[in-house]
Amino acid sequence: MKTTFYISLLLAGLNAVVHGQLPPNQHNEHDPNEPKHHTHHSGEAIACLKLVPNNADFAFQFFKEVILEVPHKNVFFSPVSISTAFAMLALGARSATQTQILEGLTFNLTEIQEKEIQAGFHNLIHMLSHPESRVQLNMVNAIFLTEKLKPLKTFLDDAKALYQLEAFTTDFSNPREAEKQINDYVERKTHGKITNLVKDLDPQTVMLLGSFVFFKGNWEKSFKPEHTEEREFFVDAETTVKVPMMHQTGKFDFYFDEDLSCTVVRLHYNGSATAFLVLPAKGKMKQLEQTLVKETIQEWSDNLFKRLLSLYFPKFSISGSYEITNMLSKMGIVDVFTDQADLSGITGTPELKVSKVVHKASLDVDERGTEAAAATAAEIMTMSLPPTIEFNRPFLMLIFDRDTNSTLFIGKIVNPTITS
């Protein structure tokens, strides 16, 4: 019987931002509002960009698995948190187990070597966490080990060097104390945003591996709180709820996708984060979910144009908590959860497997982001009334980092009044 351990994945997103992988060259080079890349990151950016297409494919494949599990509920997760944790796990995996993990993350191992993948994730973490981005994005990787388990020095050294891994000794034979230690750590690292991440720990657990992401961003153009009003949101044909609806009139990046019958509006955060708000026409959400791929995002990016709009967007808080072992198994990551697992690169012996993978994410969207922007700008409006775009039925929200072309978060908001 293999010894089991938990993997716990966490994303905390404050005020509507998530990381994800966009195709390269998504920027409009002539758009003065786009932030310029930091030239001294160019070497890191090259390493990161090797991961971009694969991380994007993983993000949207995983999205399709999540919505199959919870078809009529809010969805919110961080693909970069999941892929980072499993890339880190691949450091200690061997043979077929390692191959399945990396191929499950959509990497073609005939085109990219495992060392290149690890270097790319190392540089991605560094770039996403860089203070110059003006977006607070903290990625934390941690391992909690029973005292009896002696990990190989090479594994710990590599994981610390590549993933800034923090290691802690934990007494899993006392589940209550172990849960408190882990949950206190997670709550502190996510500024109180994620609480009670782990519960009902098995006393036989020997290791918990966690990847945590905390995001905090401010809208480039904040909404005025006095313009927020209660309006109707149409969950489905039978259900209507009241939500606080923010409102802003101005020029926005806009595109209508005729093939997918959806409206796309892009909002920037201060710094390098961007949100795509996607409103499908009535009855078209399922078509959008089933066909969404990275090339779709590229098409939207290429076709956005400035348009004067009267925009209504709900103020909401949602979270998602998922046991994702089954979803990952469907994507080809199988052996690591069974007695066929080979994680001998962690301890030197093969007596180890993953018993559970938990991912928890949360998102708050309000008028300011989290802090009011210091700048003031006046826009001159035409006298004619601009068209109104109102996000008053289920929609998607995708959050990207422009400096790394990464998909930070993917959300499907079915009912903004339900927080979890």
Word description of this protein:
Helices cover 28% and strands 31% of the residues. It is an alpha+beta fold. The chain has a domain at 4-218 and 317-365: Antithrombin, subunit I, domain 2 (Antithrombin, Chain I, domain 2, 2-Layer Sandwich). The strands form 2 sheets. Strands 2, 3, 7, 8, 9, 10, 11, 14, 15 and 16 form a 10-stranded mixed beta sheet that branches. The chain has a 6-stranded mixed beta sheet with strand order 5-4-6-1-13-12, with helices on both faces. Helix 1 crosses helix 5 and helix 3 (79-91) packs antiparallel against helix 4. The chain starts with a strand and ends in a 7-residue tail after the last strand. It comes from Strigops habroptila. Residues 21-40 are annotated as: Disordered. This is Alpha-1-antiproteinase 2-like.
Quick structural overview:
The chain has 420 residues and is an alpha+beta fold. It contains 11 helices and 16 strands.
Q: Looking at CATH, which topology of the domain at 4-218 and 317-365 would you report?
A: Antithrombin, Chain I, domain 2
CATH classification, class level of the domain at 4-218 and 317-365: Alpha Beta
Distance between the termini: 36 Å
Number of strands: 16
Helical percent range?
25-40%
- Give the helices and strands as they follow along the chain: EEHHEHHHEHEHEEEEEHHEEHHEEEE
Largest sheet features: 10 strands, mixed
What features would you highlight for this structure?
Antithrombin, Chain I, domain 2; alpha+beta; single chain; 6-stranded mixed beta sheet; 10-stranded mixed beta sheet; 420 residues; 11 helices; globular
